[in-house]
Write a structure and sequence with these properties.
Blueprint: H1 3-6, H2 11-27, H3 31-43, H4 46-79, E1 91-97, H5 105-118, E2 123-127, E3 138-139, H6 147-151, H7 153-161, E4 167-169, H8 173-183, E5 189-193, E6 205-211, E7 239-243, E8 260-272, H9 282-285, E9 289-294, H10 299-307, E10 312-318, H11 327-343, E11 350-354, H12 355-361, E12 375-384, H13 387-397
Parallel strand pairs: 1-5, 1-6, 2-4, 2-5, 6-7, 7-8, 9-10, 9-11, 11-12
Antiparallel strand pairs: 3-4, 8-12
Amino acid sequence: MTASEISSSSGRRYKAATSSRRQSERTGKTSIEQNYILCRMQVSKPGRERVVSLFRLAIGFPLALIYGLLVRLRNGLYAKGWLPIYRVGCHVVSIGNLNVGGSGKTPFAIFLLGWLQARGLRAAYLSRGYRRTTRGYQEVNLQAPEPARLFGDEAALVKSIFPSIPVAVCADRVAGAQTLLQRYPNLEVLVLDDAFQHRRLHRNLDILLIDADAPPWKDWLFPAGRLREPLSSYQRAHLLIYNQKNSPAPKAPRPLRRPLLRFHYIVTQAQPLFPHHPPLSPEELRYKTALVFCGIARPESFYQTLKTLPLHITQLLTFPDHHAYTAKDLQRLRRTYKKIQQSMHLPNLLLLTTEKDLVRLIGHPALPELENLPLYSVAIRMEPIDREKTFHTLQTLFMNVKDYDHTRSV
């Protein structure tokens, strides 16, 4: 069973990965180093991507100029009040980024919801429910069949972590917020996931995430690059969150004149999907051997975080972000696991994935294919590097929530 049979990577990408793996064997690199190269080849192909990037820049630059003008015009219309902005009767917090793709928005929303809940503030979570099959306003119900398919994997994940917090999805954030307030009139804080560009709903606090692996000052506007807005748009934010993950922090070309907090990822536990396997702490995961699979925006970040435990990874199988697993995917995962277990004589081999991937498997009709396997989701949380500074900053930003006029709605 090859990685290309399971991942959505093309045959050419698999051949490149195989070639790199053989070269690693000839040069005597360690198992971890070999698999890191395999991971790199599955996720990206630097030479080819460089050519594609130059081509995209040449074709996309004129379009990016037009796109940038339209974005600035839209932002200007909102700033002058010529486009309507609606208010709801609670404190609204937006979490977003400037780049297309993942930067840790949902992990930070999870951190913030936990912080709010610990301080007794009544909070709710609202997202658009990316790639869900339902329409309109929906409240997440984990008892529904395949909740990730119905409500989106991120919303389902948040609900699984905070079962007592209202979690809803709605493409129209204004309508979604209004419905939440009607159903939960005592709501004090509404957390919007991926809403920095959604200007129609007034927010009391705009939080902008910066990804250490893809800082916006090293990118171009769409479609020449991955920026949704010009870099100057960061000035709308009240707070910047620098997601260092496990990487050193690259310096911005000029000072970012906003309060900035630094976060990184830590592994908190590995939770089994099937009850006959025990939970594993980070200490119990150390030096274990695992087959790893995931379908997230930045699989390499997951790989690097696991590597810090340290963990021996036999293979990393990557799927597209928000991938809807099929019965064939699960059958192939089982066959790959068994093949590696037998060929490498690893009776205690683990099968690891992310929490977001695991919620996509809950209720899956083909899940019995994996029932006897030690399948675990690895809980990775964003944690502040300077806890005292972070908590003091958040306490200051949320100090007036209890005094907010909850009757105010426009």
